[in-house]
Amino acid sequence: MEFRYLGNSGLKISAITYGNWLTHGSQVENDIANQCVRAALDSGITSFDTADVYANGAAESVLGAALKGERRESLEIFTKVYWPTGPKGHNDVGLSRKHIAESINGSLTRLQTDYVDLYQAHRFDTETPLEETMQAFAQVVRQGKALYIGVSEWTADQLRAGHALAAELGIQLISSQPQYSMLWRVIEDEVVPASRELGVSQIVWSPIAQGVLTGKYKPGQPLPAGSRATDAKGGADMIKRFMTDDVLTRVQALAPIAADLDLTMAQLAVAWVLSNDNVAAALVGASRPEQVGENVKASGVTLSPDVLGRIDEALGDVVVRDPGMTTVTAPQVRPV
Fold first, then answer.
1. In this predicted structure, what is the pLDDT of residue 267?
2. What is the mean pLDDT of residues 29-47?
3. Residue at 223 is within a domain
4. For the whole model, what pTM was predicted?
5. Whether residue 119 lies in the annotated active site
6. Exposed end of the chain (fewer CB within 10 Å): N or C?
7. Total domain count for the chain?
8. Helix locations, the chain, DSSP H
């Protein structure tokens, strides 16, 4: 396992980080989830990412139970706050001081830990002054409930503003968690340059484009039974933007590139995001323990400029690059 510094900090995290979005507490049974976490630990993964909204808290509870008994100092545990949780009342959402203060306590209880290594703003809250949000995060850090602060799916301007306030308050905002893959590169033109300037790293989600980059979805063919594209709980909605014959045909052209490197297509996809030197880690989930070990093999793989060029040529114009998509896909008002 390769370990990388997270932003301009002394914290190292595993380049393959285990994430339990869409799986723990919803898609897979708890015993399978425990097996997946055990497989992650056995594979050298030390970093685990979750959020209070995943399965409305159940994902944090499952992860906390799975990690119980492990040496806490040897782990890096991340969670997030923003989306509606609990009974989803009028203050059970957003990045207000009230919601952050209450949410961190709930997360720590479910995770069975005294602190998280990284506490992340799951989205930008357009209805709370940024000063209030950052003051609330600073209080969480000073209370020892979180060591570092991060954000998810913030624009470059939002990142700069948040980082400046964090610095004034004496806390470290060191990470950004955006969607990033061969097919979805919207962070490259603005977010990544801003992050390099600020000393912020990316912890990227969906490096395999919700499974599309595994090559299992074939153009003009029925969807595989039990796949994410058939999951009515949220997976199908997330993946639909990639489920066109044009995209799927282009993805199939990656198969010989992966084969030449003796990699699976999934491993190639993960290695590709890790080739960006601003990426500290790729978030990888699993519904079966064996998937974890396979994905870990992408750690430490070096892709030559020639290989990167072949990938770009294979995918052509189906790649989404517009930095404005971060704003388009973000909530403009608090969800209810």
1. 97
2. 91
3. no
4. 0.94
5. no
6. C
7. 1
8. 30-42, 58-67, 97-111, 130-142, 156-169, 191-198, 235-239, 245-252, 255-260, 265-274, 289-296, 305-315, 325-328
